[in-house]
What does this fold into?
Amino acid sequence: GDSVTQMEGPVTLSEEAFLTINCTYTATGYPSLFWYVQYPGEGLQLLLKATKADDKGSNKGFEATYRKETTSFHLEKGSVQVSDSAVYFCARAAAGNKLTFGGGTRVLVKP
Amino acid sequence: KAGVTQTPRYLIKTRGQQVTLSCSPISGHRSVSWYQQTPGQGLQFLFEYFSETQRNKGNFPGRFSGRQFSNSRSEMNVSTLELGDSALYLCASSLDRVDYEQYFGPGTRLTVT
It folds into this structure.
């Protein structure tokens, strides 16, 4: 079935460090792919999306490229801030509006 | 534009009781989906409603049900609550079934004692 696998956390970084969170998905068709972010006590916020191979989604300094050949959608940010501390979820769309999520990666950025 | 709203934000219930959670989508959005978030199972899809009809259902027992009203507002109901139903229940809305951008509400934190 549909599944999404992302690296386990926590990931601890210093401010201004480079962040990468790996995400791979099962290749059933050509699903839309998403990254969501969840801050403590809140719901999920859509961070970025890509709908077809080689698409690059970007927002707030975060980027991810839809790689069909490696079934990956890794999230990157060149210089993280303390405010980027959160849990990040990779997701793929399935039939209709069903989203399948990865397990989430907690990121902690220290000043 | 107002975001997705969910009520109540927090709820404490006893085993065996039932509970109803409410979700108001972003104005103009016609699709509403529900997800359960727990530390052990992560985020799991419950069901999706569009035009007052359930269009998709996740792998949850029949104790979990929902409905959607003509104004796109949605409710989900859990009957005969179990301790394992303690979770954050998230509602998400999207413009329609073609537009996959889903916007989430803050969630309802349900605790079953």
Summary: The interface with chain A takes residues 4, 31, 33, 35, 42-43, 45, 48, 50, 55-56, 58, 90, 92, 94, 97, 100-107 of chain B (CB under 8 Å). Chain B has no helices and eleven strands. Chain B has a mean pLDDT of 95. The radius of gyration of chain B is 13 Å.
